[in-house]
Specification:
Elements: E1 27-32, E2 40-51, E3 54-68, E4 74-89, E5 92-97, E6 102-108, E7 116-120, H1 130-133, E8 136-148, E9 151-160, E10 166-167, E11 179-180, E12 184-185, E13 192-193, E14 202-209, E15 214-216, E16 235-237, E17 243-247, E18 254-259, E19 263-269, E20 274-280, E21 282-284, E22 291-298, E23 304-311
Antiparallel strand pairs: 1-2, 1-14, 2-3, 3-4, 4-5, 5-6, 7-8, 8-9, 9-11, 10-13, 11-12, 14-15, 16-17, 17-18, 18-21, 19-20, 19-22, 22-23
Length: 314
């Protein structure tokens, strides 16, 4: 369970609105919960562009994963997840919906305590990305401010409405991440789904930097782009005695599991649906489509661990 985020706020009577959102070079680095991949999510503002006659900023989202190679060693690799476009008008930040070729208001700063803010309504049936189909609505709990360098930024504490399916805080998980002007949600810039089923979800914003503003999570003491040591060759250590070697990863027709004990395994898709369950040293994956899966292994002592495995793309 994620603990509440505590930030020391300095109250000021006036907010500074001159600083632009997402200047080229701005970078957001998000930490993930331990367990499954990815390890980091990074958003970077890379250039100015024009969409629907609006002067926009292009944001590239990348994830940093630990990849197991054919020889069993691991390395860090970076994957591009999405390209997004935003523009700012007055106190509102608009995000481009590529499925509908239109913009919607992702952040509205001209709001007060107790306001209800509807970002998007639910779309049924959903013929596009889940993000754009989910109802996204929150209640403004309180307004405060945060001073970063010479900028006094508006801070909006918020909680999802009961009908919201997408949110800036999972209140049931005791989260209290505010929206900060010029930075966005300290949970995740584009919000998160209401429920998650596995480890490895985004935890919160680790760091933000642009030419004028620098923010770092108070409890984070390492460098912003810190990466933990890589795991050893193709192994999943359940405890000091029980070690399984999972190979190859990426896989094709089979996943092999070697170890002192016979492993009980469950293989899930990226939506958390159980696909294969059994025990032994080999999993037949011929009928699986290409993509990302999550393998949960349980030792003879009922100690479980989950890892991400990838079926090779053609």
């Amino acid at each position: 369970m994620i603990k509440n985020l505590f930030i020391t706020l300095i109250l000021f009577p006036m907010f500074v609105y001159g600083q632009e959102w997402a200047p080229v070079g701005a970078k957001w680095i998000y930490d993930h919960q331990s367990g499954l991949q990815p390890y980091l999510t990074i958003i970077e503002s890379v250039k100015d562009t024009l969409i629907l006659n609006k002067s926009c900023r292009k944001l590239i989202t990348r994830q940093v994963d630990e990849i197991m190679q054919q020889d069993g060693t691991c390395r860090w690799d970076t994957f591009t997840i999405s390209n997004d476009y935003i523009y700012t008008s007055n106190d509102t930040v608009f995000h481009y919906n590529k499925f509908e070729s239109s913009f919607y208001p992702l952040y509205q700063l001209n709001i007060e305590a107790h306001d209800t803010v509807l970002i998007r309504d639910k779309i049924t049936p959903c013929t596009q990305n889940e993000y754009f189909c989910s109802r996204f609505e929150y209640l403004v709990d309180s307004i405060s401010s945060l001073k970063l360098q010479e900028n006094t930024l508006k801070v909006v504490y918020n909680s999802p409405t009961p009908s919201s399916e997408w949110m800036f805080n999972r209140s049931w998980n005791l989260e209290n991440y505010p929206v900060v002007d010029k930075i966005g949600s300290l949970k995740y810039f584009f919000g998160v789904r209401k429920n998650f089923v596995m480890e490895g979800e985004i935890a919160c914003l680790r760091c933000y930097n642009d030419k004028n503003i620098s923010y770092k999570l108070e409890k984070w003491t390492e460098d912003c782009d810190h990466l933990r040591p890589l795991h050893g060759p193709s192994s999943v250590l359940l405890n000091e005695q029980d070690e399984f070697r999972v190979f190859p990863n990426p896989f094709d027709s089979y996943i092999n599991i070697s170890g002192k004990y016979t492993a009980n395994y469950e293989l899930y898709n990226s939506d958390g649906r159980l696909l294969i369950k059994g025990s032994g040293h080999e999993i037949n994956t011929v009928k699986l489509g290409h993509g990302v899966y999550f393998l949960q292994l349980t030792s003879g002592k009922n100690i479980s661990h989950s890892i991400k495995v990838i079926k090779s793309f053609p």
